[in-house]
């Protein structure tokens, strides 16, 4: 009998490397624009330490995360990781491009490139279907196109958006994902870029650190919207993965939503149970960057308060600067809880064995 996976990394960044690598998968009319502008949404914030770990640069050269063979040795083999869920690098902002036709073409080319390169190198790599969520009808077609590849195990979108993700504009995406049994994941880094709104409700921060500190409020916005707009009543099979958005905000949001629901439920008549119950059943989160209080038992208490031990999945964010070492994190957790986070919850969500 095959032993179940012990460690699944649910946020690993695979880079395209040179833009030329995407050209064989991209219609000729887009070549010049892709080579000249890439995703074309820019980044207003400067990180003085960069974004990538310097030691993750492949010996053969190129961008960190761009060599699948080196990543196997440098990351998966080193930490005995059974599976790495690939979430892309520098490409998520394509949903925030002003031209939907260009964004749709790039998303499709990326998915074909991912299937024909990384996913053929090792069965330990699992892919995320990139979509342009600003064009939901086209995004749904892309999900339908790629879902037959069983190594593509989720759909991924930028967390920066024009409007909260519960709104009906996005529902064709969720219908397609549910139809194929694929969870929807969002990843930070695009807040304030392209056609997205400001990174905070009060406007635009000035520094990279200030912007990075406050990313979880965007995740609270999306989770709040998904529940209150009735997405999980309309799509009862849908799971939504909030990657790299933190965890400790869960009690505040759950408790506030449940409290308000008791008095204001007539404003959301489609909800049949407490908001926190939808969150527990349909929302999944990842660990990096996990909150690190001075007393580790305080974080365990937050997990116990919210049922997070069944919602949270392990992630390292390799090869980014704030990478979490699998040997260092989760030490303060009871073994049963730690095992669920390290692999059990991801096994259930993605059907891995």
From the structure above, extract its key features.
353 residues, alpha/beta, TIM Barrel, 13 helices, carboxy-lyase activity, Metal_Hydrolase
Could you explain how this protein is built, in words?
The protein has about 350 residues and is α/β, with parallel strands linked by helices. The protein has a single domain, classed as Alpha-Beta Barrel (TIM Barrel). It is built from 13 helices and eight strands. It has an eight-stranded parallel β-sheet. The chain starts with 7 loop residues before the first strand and ends with a helix. The model has no long low-confidence stretch (mean pLDDT about 95).
Give a brief description.
The protein is of the alpha/beta class. It has helices spanning 31-37, 68-79, 100-116, 118-121, 136-146, 171-179, 208-213, 216-228, 231-234, 250-264, 275-282, 296-306, 335-350, and strands at residues 8-12, 83-86, 125-130, 152-158, 184-187, 240-242, 283-286, 312-313. An 8-stranded parallel β-sheet has the order 1-2-3-4-5-6-7-8.
The total strand number stands at 8
Please state the second-level CATH architecture. Answer: Alpha-Beta Barrel
Largest sheet: 8 strands, parallel
CATH superfamily heading = Metal-dependent hydrolases
Low-confidence segments: none
Please, how many domains? 1
CATH class: Alpha Beta
Helix amount: 25-40%
Instruction: Give the strand content.
Output: 5-15%
Mean pLDDT: 96
Q: Give the distance, in angstroms, between the N- and C-terminal Cα atoms.
A: 11 Å
Output the helix-strand order.
EHHEHHEHEHEHHHEHHEHEH
Count of DSSP H/I helices: 13
CATH topology: TIM Barrel
Instruction: Provide the gyration radius in Å.
Output: 19 Å
**How does the overall form come out from the CA principal axes?**
globular
């Amino acid at each position: 009998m095959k032993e179940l996976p012990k460690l699944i990394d649910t946020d690993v960044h695979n880079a395209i490397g040179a833009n030329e690598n995407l050209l064989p998968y991209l219609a000729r009319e887009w070549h010049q624009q892709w080579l000249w502008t890439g995703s074309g949404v820019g980044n207003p914030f400067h990180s003085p330490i960069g974004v990538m770990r310097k030691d993750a640069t492949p010996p053969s050269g190129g961008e960190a995360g761009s060599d699948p063979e080196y990543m196997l040795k440098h990351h998966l083999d080193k930490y005995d990781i059974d599976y790495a869920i690939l979430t892309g690098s520098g490409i998520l902002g394509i949903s925030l491009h002003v031209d939907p036709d260009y964004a749709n073409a790039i998303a499709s080319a990326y998915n074909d490139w991912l299937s024909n390169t990384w996913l053929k190198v090792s069965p330990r790599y699992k892919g995320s279907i990139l979509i342009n969520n600003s064009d939901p009808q086209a995004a749904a077609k892309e999900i339908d196109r790629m879902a037959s590849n069983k190594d593509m195990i989720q759909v991924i979108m930028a967390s920066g958006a024009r409007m909260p993700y519960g709104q009906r504009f996005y529902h064709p995406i969720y219908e397609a994902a549910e139809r194929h049994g694929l969870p929807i994941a969002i990843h930070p880094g695009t807040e304030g870029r392209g056609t997205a709104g400001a990174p905070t409700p009060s406007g635009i921060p000035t520094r990279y650190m200030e912007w990075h500190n406050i990313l979880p409020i965007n995740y609270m916005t999306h989770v709040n919207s998904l529940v209150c707009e009735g997405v999980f009543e309309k799509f009862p099979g849908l799971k939504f993965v909030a990657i790299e958005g933190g965890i400790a905000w869960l009690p505040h949001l759950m408790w506030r939503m449940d409290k308000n629901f008791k008095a204001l439920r007539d404003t959301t008549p489609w909800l049949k149970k407490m908001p926190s119950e939808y969150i527990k059943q349909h929302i999944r989160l990842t660990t990096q960057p996990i909150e690190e209080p001075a007393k580790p038992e305080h974080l365990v208490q937050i997990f116990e308060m919210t049922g997070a031990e069944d919602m949270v999945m392990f992630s390292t964010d390799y090869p980014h600067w704030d990478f979490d070492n699998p040997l260092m994190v989760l030490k303060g957790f009871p073994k049963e809880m730690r095992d669920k986070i390290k692999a059990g919850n991801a096994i259930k969500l993605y059907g891995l064995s």
